[in-house]
Amino acid sequence: MSEFRKLTFAYLGLLGLLVLTVGSSFFPLGGLNSVLNLVIAGGKAGIIALLFMQLAADGVLPRLAAATAALWLAILFGLTLIGQ
Amino acid sequence: MSASNESVAFDTPARERRADAFAMWIFVGSEAMLFGAILLVFFMARISYGAAFAAASQRLSLPLGTLNTVVLITSSFAMPLAHLYASAGRWRAALWSLAATVLLGLGFLGIKTAEYTMEFREGIAPVLGAPFTYDGPDRVHAEFFFGLYFAMTSLHALHLIGGIVVIAGMLMLWTRANEASRLRRVHAIGLYWHFVDIVWVFLFPVLYLINR
Q: What is the ipTM of this complex?
C-alpha cells in the first residue's frame, strides 16, 4: 500500500472513531460511556503514534522513550487510583 | 561534518536524524507527564463530584468541540503529508502541506476563541476575575469543573500556538536550509504537532462527552 493511501486511511479512521465516540455519548450506557470514550481515544492515539508519528518504523529508541513515558504515566495513575 | 549535517556531533545524516527523533520523543514523553498529571487531577475530581461535572459539561458546546476535533485531526493529516512530500523531494507540495497545517491550527484557535467568548458571556468562565453566574446544580464543584476546563484547554492552546510559531519560523527559513535539514525539521515538528493532537484526542471526550 502506498504511503499516501496509508495516511489517508488513518485520517478516515480517525474521523470514523470521532463519529463513534460522539455518537455513543448519546446512548445512556452508564459508566460504560466513559470507558468507551477512553478506549476510543486510546485507539485514536495509537493510530496517530503508529502511522503519523512513525513510531513503529522509527527504530528502537523512540519506542523506548514512548514506553518509558507510558510506564511512568501508568505508575502515576495506578498508584493514585488504586485506593479509590 | 557532512554537507547535509546540521551538527558536527554526528558523522552521518542518518545518525543525526535518529538522534533528532529520539530527543523529540523524550521531549514528548516529558510533556505527556505534564498533561497526564492534570488529567489525573480531573479524573480524581470527576470521581468525587461526578453529578456536578456531568451537569457542567452539558454547558460546553459539543458542535464546536467536535468541529475543532475535525480541524485538528485534519491538521495532523496535513503534517505527515508534508513529511511524505519532503522525503520525495517534492518541496513545493511539502511547503503547501505545512502552510495548511498552520492554517488549520489557526482555525482551531479561532474556533476555541469563539467558544471562550460564548462561555464568558454565559458567565461560566471562572477565570481572569470574570463573574461566575452558573445556575445549575452544585455551583461550587461546577466552578471547579470550569476552572479545570479552562486550565486544560488553554494549556493545550498554548502548546498549539508554540507549534504554529515554530512551523511559521521554519517556513521563513525554508529557502536558507538545505534539503536534509528541511526533512529533519519537518519530522521533528511533526512529532510535536501530533502529540498536541493526541492531547486533544483525550481532552475532547473527557471534557465534552460526560453523560450527554
A: 0.91
